[in-house]
Amino acid sequence: MIDQSTNFKIYIEGIGKWISFVDRERELKQLINLATRGNPFPIAIYGPEGCGKTTLLKYLTKQLKQHENYIAIYIDALEQQDLAKAIACTHHELWEVVTSLVAITPVGENLAKSITTILRKLHEKISLKGKKVVVVVDDVYKAIGLNNVARYTKMLYEWVNYLHTNFNVSTVLFILTTSEGESKRELYRHTYVHVYMMWNLPKKGLEELAKQLEAPIDIEALWKLTGGNPRAVIDLAIHNWDVDNWTKYIERKVTSTIRDIDPRELKTLVEDPDSNWRIATKLEERGLMMELNRALVIGEEPNPNPELGIGREWAWQLPIYRQVIEKIVSSK
Q1: CA atoms in the 13 A half-sphere facing the CB of 251
Q2: Cα–chain-centroid distance for residue 239?
Q3: CA nearest neighbour of 114 among 139, 135, 129, 131
Q4: What does the alpha-carbon distance between residue 163 and residue 144 come to, in Å, rounded to a whole number?
Q5: 146 in Cβ contact with 183 (< 8 Å)
Q6: How many C-beta atoms lie closer than 10 Å to residue 80's C-beta?
Q7: Domain residue spans of the chain
Q8: Backbone angles phi and psi of 137, in degrees to 5
């Protein structure tokens, strides 16, 4: 039995605070269940930028370390230089294998491409027979490029059977993450991967995070700005909780992203996020909106909420994006 109560803290640069893992017990339980029984297909998890995928998966790796029957490795595919930041793993032998392989940078991308080699070499050191193998590769598609999405994912799918046949493992779980709409749409075209969605924190989780950060802002107001996105809350804290200043910063970012889009089409999405699939797709590629997958969800799916910009099929990744664009189009 895995103890899910182990404390897990993250240091937040810019505000000089350590914060604890917040309100992802349901997501963690789902992933541990998947790790326990294995999955014949790799699972790809997508969600809003900053929703907490990385923190959750690092925490998962730490939890699996408690159980000797699990062999797990987490790889940050975007880490360029620091091996200690690029991986987390359950066994010293895994660390030895990885350090023996990394001779060039970027370390994260090269490790992501070397998963099969890592597992082969590990099997030479410690038998994988009867083990539960969990491999997490974070932001892999951004690292390896969109042209390699299908090939890389299919390779891992084929390796599930290879590990059972050649190494006699007990179970296998490959977890991949992305925040990109294009890679997610590519994955939807194929039958050898399961695509899961993960959303921002629920209001209870936002309250816990705000308390740790000693937020001077009313929770309801914070909810309407961030929708429970942890990175947005932390970004606001780095801006000294100055909502006007933070909003101006967001406005500059958004304005440069939407210059080529007809304000009339943006207005329809401000009013109803499900109203214009074509423009919503463009905004997803630019990190402003997201298509909602309500079939396979890690954690809670978001309820439709016009004020937060959440529909049935599409949603604004942050409510502040919708508010800023509403202001921009109303001035046209």
Answers
A1: 12
A2: 24
A3: 135
A4: 23
A5: yes
A6: 13
A7: 23-198, 203-330
A8: -125, 110
Encoded tokens for 208:
């816990």
Mean pLDDT computed over 62-78? 92
In angstroms, rounded to a whole number, what is the distance separating the alpha carbons of residues 280 and 185? 13
Residue type, 127: S
Distance between CA atoms of 311 and 272, rounded to whole angstroms?
7
What are 277's two structure tokens?
A: 């699939």
Question: What is the pLDDT at residue 1?
Answer: 42
- Burial state string for 24-54 with b = 16 or more CB within 10 A and e = fewer than 16: beebbebbbebbbebeebbbbbbbbebbbbb
pLDDT tens per residue, range 239-255? 999 999 999 999 999 99
CA dist., res. 95 & res. 75, Å (int): 12
208-243 tens-digit pLDDT: 999 999 999 999 999 999 999 999 999 999 999 999
- The confidence score (pLDDT) of residue 7 equals 66
Which class does domain 23-198 fall in? alpha beta
pTM: 0.93
228 to each of 22, 206, 245, 308, how far by Cα in Å?
11, 5, 19, 10
* Cα 264 versus chain centre, distance: 32
List the one residue out of 254, 244, 326 whose CA is nearest residue 288.
254
